[in-house]
């Protein structure tokens, strides 16, 4: 399939596909693996959703005045007229729904055909409900937030059985100044939405919303933002420009951000190559090319250091941890720092950030934070985190048996005695 984010290949039989994925879903719930033709984005989402009861309904976080006040203060309220203009009429006429959620998957607005809205209320697809993967399983807005990419979820690809009669497409929306995830826009309805047009429509709507927000809030002159979490190549945003850097330039920029006092060429060479492969000429050449990309106003030399104000997503995470805000840090953490980089300096910094965040989350014993950590790449196989989650969940919680099962699975993989895993997980 040309686009892995689309649910159906050209010419595929929807009924046959529904049956195939339904069988794979039942197998996953039974044995923990998904055989058959299940898209990779769906399989991974099911794995992240495995703690949920497949019969559960998304919980409602906000109602009444609290919901009204929250929506009014949210940045996406400023582009609600645009959403209604681009999607509202189509949703009403096409017998489906337009929905907008925040970065936590909390639905802010659900609008469209009245009959469809009434049916959606039965599964709590209503304003104020939490539709992130941690609370509602695989679904377009929740999965779009989890992977930070537009995606279509078709029928039985949904983790919750109550949602499997629906098809949806969603796209994430970012703050154009900082790159921070603001939420997602979604269209939800019947199987007829499983087409390239619905995915293209939400993608275009999300980009239009970002453009309108950018026009309202011009970037601070001379202030640069670097996005490097969960990305193999960093993105630089400055004065309205978006520059995607190559791998080596991404590593250099991260290292310079981590050392605002400056670095010599030899120090940067050690950070990039290690003791055995120090190439001063290569480092100088890479820095010269990086200066041409950044501009002389951003990169100084002797020592090499960044000028002016340069913000970075990974620095935001560490700043929140320093302020004692693990929930905010986990919310700002979109993945490991340059995850495929093997530069020694970057790898050390990546381990440091992940380790500090992990320690802060484990220290809270908060089930919601622990569950969120176990959905990250660093936390998915973290036995201690799963044990802490199993201990933190009350005995009757629907997620607890799944957490305990994951503890036993990881203990077997790590060769630990079953009794040890049981004792530590409290079961």
From TrEMBL:
Example GO molecular function: DNA binding
Keywords from the UniProt entry: DNA-binding, Transcription, Transcription regulation
Cited InterPro entries: GAF (IPR003018), GAF-like_dom_sf (IPR029016), OmpR/PhoB-type_DNA-bd (IPR001867), WH-like_DNA-bd_sf (IPR036388)
Organism: Micromonospora avicenniae
Domain OmpR/PhoB-type: 240-306
Record carries keyword Transcription: yes
Protein name, as recorded: Transcriptional regulator
Domain of life: Bacteria
Pfam families linked to this entry: GAF
SMART domains registered for this protein in UniProt: Trans_reg_C
Gene Ontology BP annotations: phosphorelay signal transduction system; regulation of DNA-templated transcription
Statement: the UniProt record of this protein carries the keyword Nucleotide-binding: no
